Amino acid sequence: MEHKFLVEVDQERCKGCSLCIDACPTNVLGFSKGFNAKGYHPAEVQALDDCIGCGFCYQMCPDVCIEVKALAKQ
Amino acid sequence: MAEKVMVKGTEAIAEAALRAGCRLYYGYPITPQSELTEYMARRMPEIDGTFLQAESEVAAVNMIYGAACTGKRVMTSTSSPGFSLMQEGISYIAGAELPSVFVNVVRGGPGLGDIQPAQGDYFQATKGGGHGDYKLIVYGPESLQEAVELTGKSFDVADKYRTPVLILADGMLGQMMEPVSFPDFVDEKELPDHSDWAMTGTKMERDAHRVTSFNIDPYGLEEMNKRYQARYKEIIKNEKMYEEYMLEDADVVIVAYGTIGRIAKSVAKMAREKGVKAGVFRPITLWPFPYEELAKYNDQAKLFFTVEMSAGQMIEDVKLSVNGKKPVGFYGRMGGVVPTPGEIFAKLMELV
Amino acid sequence: MAYIDRFKGPHALSGKEFTYCPGCHHGIVHRLVAEVIDELGIEGKTMMVAPVGCAVFSYEFFNVDGTVAAHGRAPAVATGMKRATPEKTVFTYQGDGDLAAIGTAEIVHAANRGEKITTIFINNAIYGMTGGQMAPTSLLGMKTTTSPYGRRADREGHPIHVSEVLKELDGVAYLSRTKVNTPQDVIKTKKAIKKAFLAQEKGIGFGIVEVLSTCPTNWGLTPVESNKWLEENMTKEYPLGVFVDKVGDGK
């Protein structure tokens, strides 16, 4: 089953600020249990099926870590 | 001996100023000395003093000017770009003969530069900086205890001669921590009395005091300048300070000031271990520069070796002193780089 | 399965990782400025003047020619640059110390002359880069390293309302105050920034957006808490809105 939307987080770029997690209206994102090279717990996609493609995560990310893609219409 | 406290350089200078009776501080944040400003913000209200963060260094130096007009002890602090902004104000302060104390915690330049230690403001401090024929008394401390003592002294000589005084520190001195003992608080009643010239209100009892650097008549201005020059002659006669370290039998005279003067002593010891008889001449007043005192070594020394965190500024004064009699070598680092004793020593061994 | 980009970082950003703290709004606004530059197609002719402050490195983050001015002097530098090459787009990006403390003369006169430049003004009510000192825009009662007992009007004066001061100047072509602590506000801020650039592109006059922003590190709050603090405190002191708009609806 294809996802309607893809959310990609550049986890090495992420500083774990949580603004994306806080902004997402459908709780797609959460903190990773692991660390990135900078020592932060980066944000990660945890519930991609719930994504509505609003882009709020992209809007709030201060480090341009996030890309949102939509399934191309056939 | 008073108790010793572990303190950061910028804060040591701030507390020393308060002990010396300074109750007026106007400044602006700039790295690497913002802690001095912050310390004053915290401490001045505790002792009924006045702190104000000005909108810029240009405003701050003019606030210093105004406060100094009232005859009270006043201080500001900044770092290189901010000190550049203060030059016009300092020229005014010198011309108006106002006692005041400045601190420049020098960082890498020119321009925005960086925030690491440097000694690239020597020319600005000792040769002018601002316009016109004036001089600042300039102290270059090597340690926090010396900085504490020179801060107190700065206020004393500023009042004695009615002139602005500069403590020329660097980012390393400002940021490092050492144990210091502070002197007791000066008794307010023992502070110098400037009622003969200060702006305090005539109370309808005396003629107006006019504090100014301005005279539209060139012959009048010349007389004012002669007065300043006479004052500078007095300062040169009375106020030179320097340290002589292992110089009695030295073949190599290392000339360095501030934190580099301190590092130079380690270099002299390293040289002696290799059989080179090195010593250190450390000017403590950069103006007045101890020319004659350094020149005493012109016959004895085989080499003068100047070390600075700059492209070479104090070396010109060293050369004036040596007057061509012996070679003057140089090692300098720019950009905020602090040389290690090993690096300086390596250059010295190349030269001998 | 083919996917198309829906939200992706703009071309006008160089891709270098931002040096800002986690959650700092500088990054959001940088991205918006770059998105506007992309949409207006002006990357090749845009030049920027960075301030002294956290954004001193900002010229590394944009794919445009950039310089850094002495503290507060960016509007003067931008004036010199724009009048030398009027066909270029010149913008300054300044914080509250740079613009509202040391640079008050420069911003007032650039705005008054109606310089065809664009200024992005980040107001986070504190000095970030130098470690949390009071700004002219710090709120009453705010404890900072140089107002350790809390800002008092009778001692340090009231917070200065830059937009309200500048709106009185005839040279201003676009002036608004926005914030970026919610996604909706981020989108609104982008529209404001676009208008501020259009004021220059259409040759009308000086364009500026005052963006209320957070400084989590020096406020001592998490990024999410900071967004809340901004909402509850800064919007009361600094009303949002469009103060001057001579740009209109033109594209």
Automatic annotation (TrEMBL), chain A:
GO terms for molecular function: 4 iron, 4 sulfur cluster binding; metal ion binding. Keywords: 4Fe-4S, Iron, Iron-sulfur, Metal-binding. Pfam families: Fer4_7 (PF12838). InterPro entries: 4Fe4S_Fe-S-bd (IPR017896), 4Fe4S_Fe_S_CS (IPR017900), Fe-S_Ferredoxin (IPR050572). Residues 5-34, 41-71 form the 4Fe-4S ferredoxin-type domain. This is 2-oxoglutarate ferredoxin oxidoreductase subunit delta. It comes from Geotoga petraea. The lineage of its organism: Bacteria, Thermotogati, Thermotogota, Thermotogae, Petrotogales.
TrEMBL record, chain B:
Residues 15-196 form the Pyruvate flavodoxin/ferredoxin oxidoreductase pyrimidine binding domain. Keywords: Oxidoreductase. It comes from the Bacteria. Pfam families: PFOR_II, POR_N. Residues 250-344 form the Pyruvate:ferredoxin oxidoreductase core domain. Gene3D superfamilies: 3.40.50.920, 3.40.50.970. GO terms for molecular function: oxidoreductase activity. PANTHER family: SUBUNIT OF PYRUVATE:FLAVODOXIN OXIDOREDUCTASE, SUBUNIT OF PYRUVATE:FLAVODOXIN OXIDOREDUCTASE-RELATED. This is 2-oxoglutarate ferredoxin oxidoreductase subunit alpha. It comes from Geotoga petraea.
UniProtKB/TrEMBL annotation, chain C:
GO terms for biological process: cellular respiration. GO terms for molecular function: oxidoreductase activity, acting on the aldehyde or oxo group of donors, iron-sulfur protein as acceptor; thiamine pyrophosphate binding. Pfam families: TPP_enzyme_C. It comes from the Bacteria. Gene3D superfamilies: 3.40.50.970. SUPFAM superfamilies: Thiamin diphosphate-binding fold (THDP-binding). Residues 58-201 form the Thiamine pyrophosphate enzyme TPP-binding domain. Keywords: Oxidoreductase. Transmembrane segments: none annotated. InterPro entries: 2-oxoacid:Fd_oxidoreductase, THDP-binding, TPP_enzyme_TPP-bd. PANTHER family: 2-OXOGLUTARATE OXIDOREDUCTASE SUBUNIT KORB-RELATED, SUBUNIT OF PYRUVATE:FLAVODOXIN OXIDOREDUCTASE. This is 2-oxoglutarate ferredoxin oxidoreductase subunit beta. It comes from Geotoga petraea.
